[in-house]
Fold:
Amino acid sequence: MAARHTSVEDRYVIRDRNRSLVFGAIITKGPISRSEIAEVTGLSHGTVTKAVAPMVEAGYVTDEAPDEPRDAAESVKGRPRVPLRVRPERRCVVGVKTTGHEVIGVVANLAGTVVVSKRVRLVSAEVADVVRAIGRLVKQLVGSEAGLRECTHDLGVVLGGHVDADRRLVHTSLELGWREVPLARLLTAETGLRTVVENNVNALAVAEQWFGAGVDVPWFVVVTLGAGVGSALVLDGQLMGGVRGGAGELGHAVVEPGGRICRCGNRGCLETVAADPAILASIVEAGGPDLDDIRAAANLARSGDLAATAAFTRAGTALGTQIATLANIVNPQRIILSGEGVVSSDLLMTSLREAFAAHVLLPADHYELLTHPLPDEAWARGAAMVTLQDIFVGSA
Ligand SMILES: [Zn+2]
Structure:
């Protein structure tokens, strides 16, 4: 019985994986022929053809010359096919990043191009206030240009927290203080848009995979630094979120048992040493000034202040050690450091690289360790990418 269950699940996973690979190839490399897709994805020509068919049928992807009529059935019969490409104007999606104090949104077309971006401040992080603010943001976004309202039917929202595998329910968000919030349902009621929810670092990984430092890299991890420390895993071309969205919780690996209390309730997590508030706390503990901004702390360290320099070094060492453990477990080709904390990467990287090299099992130069600073809009674009992915992979 267990075996039968597994085989059914495997079939779905393989089908979704193929669609994801094929759509990813068209959106990132189009115009591209079916044979070329087979070549870059490693799938058979038949599998590619089967995956493409519903996308063409829905009008999202076309293999016709731009000036020809869009009749898929006819083109199969007689007309010569040209390489596949997405039809950007066919559908738009809204992507939103939610933090504890504001919501940042973009509208992206089917090619992943951002058409417009806006932000709205939050009154509070209460569920009702966040839902209302996102509703206002969506109205402003789709009302900002002619035609946007008509082509937009989907909304993707990302936040720091655990989201279920169907991308509908927020199990927990430490950042917002939420538990078991049916956010997709609430937002559909507020906006009228079909809604998906995803962890923010996972969404960033999807954006990196399609348009950023993860293009053509099947095995990579994203580690984000800032208010917290997060990570997302893309293994063999697939984002690995975990059964309850809890995969990649690098920030809660214990680095100093019995150390500072973490926002998760445990003591000595990586976040209590390497997240921005922890770096600020380390400076105070060493007799330095009580700062409220990581940029000010970075400037202090750059001016030669010993307490500040030591705080960044301590953070870098803890990060390097834990990233080495992550590398030892999943053996990615590339490790992408991102998030707002990357602004101080010049102060972290020496100790981070040293600790990484000391603790990673394969030679350290086997791994590409790079920093990729991104603005808030990049996270919102990641939310839009997750939404596009869901349209094609989840329900195509
Ligand atoms: Zn923790």
